[in-house]
Amino acid sequence: MAPTSFNADVVPQAPEDPLFGLMAAFRRDEDPKKVDLGIGAYRDDNAKPWVLPVVKKADEILRSDPNLNHEYLPIAGLADFTTASQKLILGADSPAIKEKRVASLQTISGTGAVHLGALFLAKFYRTNSQRTAYFSDPTWVNHFQIFKNVHLDYLTYPYFSAKTRGLDFEGMVNTIRNAAEGSIIVLHACAHNPTGVDPTQEQWKEICKVMQEKKHFPFFDCAYQGFASGDLAKDAWAVRYFIDQGFELCIAQSYAKNFGLYGERAGCFHFVTSAASDAETTVTRIASQLAILQRSEISNPPAYGARIASTVLNNKELFAEWEADLRTMSGRIIEMRKALRSKLEELGTPGTWNHITDQIGMFSYTGLSEAQVLKIRSDSHVYMTKNGRISMAGLNTHNVDYFAHAVDKVVRESQ
After folding, report:
1. pLDDT tens track for 141-154
2. What dihedral angle (degrees, nearest 10) is formed by the CA atoms of 156, 157, 163, 169?
3. What residues are labeled active site?
4. 302 and 337 part of one domain
5. Are residues 121 and 209 both part of a single domain?
6. Looking at the domain assignment, is residue 132 inside a domain?
7. Domain enclosing residue 303, as ranges
8. Is 227:41 a contact under the CB 8 Å cutoff?
9. Which pLDDT score is estimated for 128?
10. Shortest CA distance to 242 belongs to which of 270, 205, 200?
């Protein structure tokens, strides 16, 4: 047999994905008190997956539709879905929609939207200097691999302050100000992953102003609209403000969290051109190139998740029910934040814990060190990522006290 050319020097063993490795370790643990705080998916008060009631209704509508089939969607996806997605993120009265300067394609959830946008920018975005994308430090870990795979250089801007456990606003703005003109700045629209720390509206305005001065290109990643605060418009405020200020930008939109459609991979990518007399022609050209990229990678997107979301987004009564479901999910997470902070302060756990309730969305950066995280895992069978990030959705009324005591113990032992 001829020796393979794919030896270890050519194809080294890749490291295990840390998050999926953490999930596997949790599943192997047989301790009855084990707690999973690594999972990035909503859980109810019994730590069970929650199918949104409105999704069940949409499911029934689709199942009962005699015209339902499993034919291919167009390359750009389900038109009713992409049109509704535009209105959801940009606002139904958005000038960008009215002026027909938005190109939208259905994608393989938010990951596929980020990838399609990065691929498009790698091929077509031109600046006077070397093209560089800037990610927050820290950011969703997959951002790095996606941009690396399409051969776009990247750097980071300061974001999380370990001292205050809040936003390093000064560091963020200064780095953006000093970045080469025309850099791509990747921004989390709301519920920053992994820290749960968001800029205030006044801070967003300052970030926008600096980016205008440096002619930077905004790339918004929006994975939690409505899931963060329970208010769809509030969670989309930054995106809409940047468009109002005249930016050309793109948006990656996910329906995994806010519809609970994790495995259905329903997402959307939007490219918004700036207002101009030829804006409609420009966006048509952009859409044609995005379609070619999409065709070469997935041919066309999966239908079922988009059909569920579209059924809800385009029905007034179901939409109102969905908003109620969003308030249920965001409200439970807010209550868990309050309960955890209250318990830690009641125990007199060393340090300050206001950051638990100051942060928003699914994740919280606890401030625990890697050593403390590993100690909690070995002693108390609590699983979280090594950087101390926890999924607040993994907490419930049955385990929040247990987790608080575990944190209290490890913090005191580290003193």
Report:
1. 899 999 999 999 99
2. -160
3. 140, 221, 257
4. no
5. yes
6. yes
7. 72-314
8. no
9. 66
10. 205
